[in-house]
Amino acid sequence: xxxxxxxxxxxxxxxxxxxxxxxxxxxxxxxxxxxxxxxxxxxxxxxxxxxxxxxxxxxxxxxxxxxxxxxxxxxxxxxxxxxxxxxxxxxxxxxxxxxxxxxxxxxxxxxxxxxxxxxxxxxxxxxxxxxxxxxxxxxxxxxxxxxxxxxxxxxxxxxxxxxxxxxxxxxxxxxxxxxxxxxxxxxxxxxxxxxxxxxxxxxxxxxxxxxxxxxxxxxxxxxxxxxxxxxxxxxxxxxxxxxxxxxxxxxxxxxxxxxxxxxxxxxxxxxxxxxxxxxxxxxxxxxxxxxxxxxxxxxxxxxxxxxxxxxxxxxxxxxxxxxxxxxxxxxxxxxxxxxxxxxxxxxxxxxxxxxxxxxxxxxxxxxxxxxxxxxxxxxxxxxxxxxxxxxxxxxxxxxxxxxxxxxxxxxxxxxxxxxxxxxxxxxxxxxxxxxxxxxxxxxxxxxxxxxxxxxxxxxxxxxxxxxxxxxxxxxxxxxxxxxxxxxxxxxxxxxxxxxxxxxxxxxxxxxxxxxxxxxxxxxxxxxxxxxxxxxxxxxxxxxxxxxxxxxxxxxxxxxxxxxxxxxxxxxxxxxxxxxxxxxxxxxxxxxxxxxxxxxxxxxxxxxxxxxxxxxxxxxxxxxxxxxxxxxxxxxxxxxxxxxxxxxxxxxxxxxxxxxxxxxxxxxxxxxxxxxxxxxxxxxxxxxxxxxxxxxxxxxxxxxxxxxxxxxxxxxxxxxxxxxxxxxxxxxxxxxxxxxxxxxxxxxxxxxxxxxxxxxxxxxxxxxxxxxxxxxxxxxxxxxxxxxxxxxxxxxxxxxxxxxxxxxxxxxxxxxxxxxxxxxxx
Length: 825
Known about the structure:
The chain is of the alpha+beta class and 825 residues long. It is built from 28 helices and 22 strands. The strands form 4 sheets. The protein has a 9-stranded mixed sheet with strand order 1-6-5-4-7-3-2-8-9, with helices on one face.
């Protein structure tokens, strides 16, 4: 035993010395192997459940899981410093440029679209750059990992080399898009499109750690990663699934940005910002489906127990038939199962990029419903699809909606929202640009897509760009041309000569009455445009519509009015008021109607403001027939009449000294009415006074200076005026004549549309006149009430109470009678 003990101990000691050395050799061998190039992960041919995805072996899956779970820079990666300070970067990006966090997705999709544009352009001359299979599919994919709080955006675009990643993602002030445009203008070099710029850094609004995995055809696959802490790292990618070509961005979302892991939220953002991107955008979306699965044995046994209550004969028959069916069909049940598939988010095509001649009316209507989110199946009244060239190039589609929103004019001057959307290279920028269209055209729907506007820093400050002024001018001109064309194509708007030609066309029935519908919905906007837009005032005036004394209830334009003017008529006559019915009975129209002059009715409150700005049209001045300055031709007897009524006018003016009357004159506008009150040419009319007094914050003391001077115009042919003149000649100091003159003035004041300052005084004069016509003494008084009335009231109330008590007593009989009737029925 001892003979074997000593050798065995020596053998164990030798082994202890040898093992550490062997471990060091194994470690050294492993290190040498790690320095050797790693073979790319193996890609299986089967794609599996993912339609355009890649299936990997277990090693790749394990490495990718480790890569996804990390939130720190890789140890063996090459590290770099940002060119700009991180504090300045975050201050500019978060505080200044991007007030809305949602736009990070817009920026990433825009960059992905640029990369796809680049590879597509290169494929025109070299088809091999696209590759084969899934690599040839030019698309954008969005995927969620709720467990690890990761949002991934992948494209199959041009991709980036290691040098591109360092150069483009490490420089804050560089924008790939603007640099590409500048490069194209100078040298025609396309190598800059698809690279990232400042827009990329908006990812740090929602993420605290970002990975950019990119594969370019000329380089290996690399990973760029950063926590926005002043440094970033770039390393060769041996952990993730091979992309083939393109870029995948993984955002490790902040805790406060978990809302972007919701599928519905992402769908909403894509629909809002990137709906018209040229390339398909897919989302890896969940979907519940019904699936037939084998039923459990326990459930089948429960079903057998419930059937024991049946008769034995029926059981035997059912068992025989059941055995046969069981042999043919196994028992199954339907369960809800969650599946995942790629869902297309941008199925609406950008029709504004096509030739207008190739787009059908149905396509325009469908596009309008999508753009305006209006699904009432009503066609827009008109649309304009055009391309502008020159200093600023853009494409636009404008629509006139079939109906006006209910709140169109409620917050007209306070609302910044516009119905016109601005796109830059099919990327939605904003719909809150007042600079694109003036407020009076904010009822139009549509979009503008420009390739010349910058898509870089301060996208939200684009409204400061000088190009927008040029775009605005062209949009206004095209919008007004579209509305004018709508009127020209309406058979109801044309002259009698043109109506026959238009009615022969096939579209006449469809376009008939369209402009009248437009005017009823948006006519006030055209009037506001005349007030606000001095440059286009004459063009807007051509679009005005109104009713007149000769239009028979139909709308008339200024051009049609001028074509019907009498020979020698120099002014366009109009009158303002609250309704057409009221204006038709106005005394101001009496002589004009008799002489066959046409007068325009303005019944909208905004018309008073409108006519302060629209002074003339086609060298014809506007004349309010309720103001001074009305000229209807000269009468040979005018001078004689003025002389004969000169004394009456002077007496009447002195009698109305307390009534703020500027003058009393002979009228040339009255036929059947004794007198009217007119205002000075540049003062407020009676209708305008009423409008201003009804304002919530109006101050009557400050309005006094704007009230026009009132002039009493009398009808020298009226019998009341003639009789009054004779009475004045007999006794100018007769107090009853003066009272009659004041009453006539107050009556004319009210008939002319003014508000009486003292209605009580006017009423007392009317009652006095009624007394005299009924031969009642002016000293007659009202009889006094008797004091007994109050006692009678008390007795009547007591009687009422007693009656109510007696009515309540026989309630039982009253209740039983209906029930008895019900029983009989």
